[in-house]
Amino acid sequence: MSRAFPEHSARLPAKEVNVTDCRTKASRLGVRMCGFPIEAIVSARCNLVIGFGIALVAILLLLTANFQSIKLALVVLSTAPAVLAGVALMLWITGSSLNIQSFMGTIMALGVAVANAILLVTFAEQGRREGMPALEAAKTRMRPVLMTSIAMTAGMVPMALALGSGAQATAPLGRAVIGGLLAATATTLLIIPLVFTIVQQNAKQTSVSLDPEDPESRYASPPPETA
Fold first, then answer.
1. Residue 216: which residues within 8 A CB-CB, separation 6 or more?
2. What's the rounded Cα separation, in Å, for the pair 216 and 221?
3. What single DSSP character describes residue 205?
4. CA 19, CA 35: separation in Å to the nearest integer?
5. Residue 224: CA atoms inside 13 Å, Cβ hemisphere, count?
6. Model pTM?
7. What is the pLDDT of residues 18-67, one digit of tens each?
8. Which sequence spans correspond to the domains of the chain?
9. Chain-centre distance of CA 69, in angstroms?
10. Residue 29 contacts residue 8 (beta carbons within 8 Å)
11. Burial letters for 81-104: b for 16+ Cβ neighbours within 10 Å, e otherwise?
């Protein structure tokens, strides 16, 4: 036989309420508090912030190893502030909150933005060694960057519009991705070539690679002599 508990309502005074005391008193009255787990939300947000920072550090280390240059790695990561600014602006325009879904969208937008920046910086560095200006290298990579960003943005539009029942819960994810990608794409095509030109204006034409098997490295092994 089900046991029905009477509903209790109380007016709390307009002062700071101790959550632990409220839960203790509620348990004594036999009332189950059906509130949302606030501690779990705070813990999840902290974990996402930590994960975001770890992701940036990991990306920086991997890019430094790939380009063998800390300067080029920082040029690629210059899209990160643009992603954060775009996400914050889009959430503010749409009136969305900074929650777990928007954090996930920020990480997704950062991944796509870094991939586009790697593509542009790689071709810009190759073009620089061949005497091509960085702006010309950016023009040659404009189509792939735009195609990637447009496809990702278009795929997030239905989610951002919160179409359907229960879609409002995941709408901040789509809005964060759209805002971050719009800002990152503009930064990748307009700002990164200028930053690359400033950073690499006094760089040598030869490769900085230390790999003796890299033919462009100054430490490359001489080709074997043919008999």
1. 129, 206, 207, 209
2. 10
3. S
4. 11
5. 3
6. 0.69
7. 445 544 544 444 444 444 456 666 677 777 778 778 888 888 888 888 88
8. 38-199
9. 22
10. yes
11. ebbbebbbebbeebebeebbbbbb
- 116 by Cβ neighbours in 10 Å (0-12 / 13-18 / 19+) ranks as buried
Residue spans of alpha helices (H) in the chain = 19-28, 38-67, 70-77, 79-94, 100-129, 134-140, 142-160, 171-186, 192-199
CATH code, 38-199? 1.20.1640.10
Amino acid 30: pLDDT: 42
The band of 12, judged by pLDDT with boundaries at 50, 70 and 90, is: very low
- With tokens 């792939």, the residue in question is 144
Q: Position of tokens 């709390």?
A: 12
Q: What is the predicted pLDDT for the residue at 211?
A: 58
CB atoms closer than 10 angstroms to residue 69: 20
Q: Which residues contact 96 (CB under 8 A, 6 or more apart)?
A: 90, 102, 171, 172, 175, 176
Exposed e or buried b for every residue in 208-217, given b needs 16+ CB within 10 A?
A: bbeeeeeeeb
Under the phi-then-psi rule, with left for phi > 0, alpha for psi from -120 to 50, and beta for the rest, what region is 96?
beta
Give residue 208's pLDDT band: very low, low, confident or very high (50, 70, 90): low
- Is 43 within 8 Å of 51 (Cβ atoms)? no
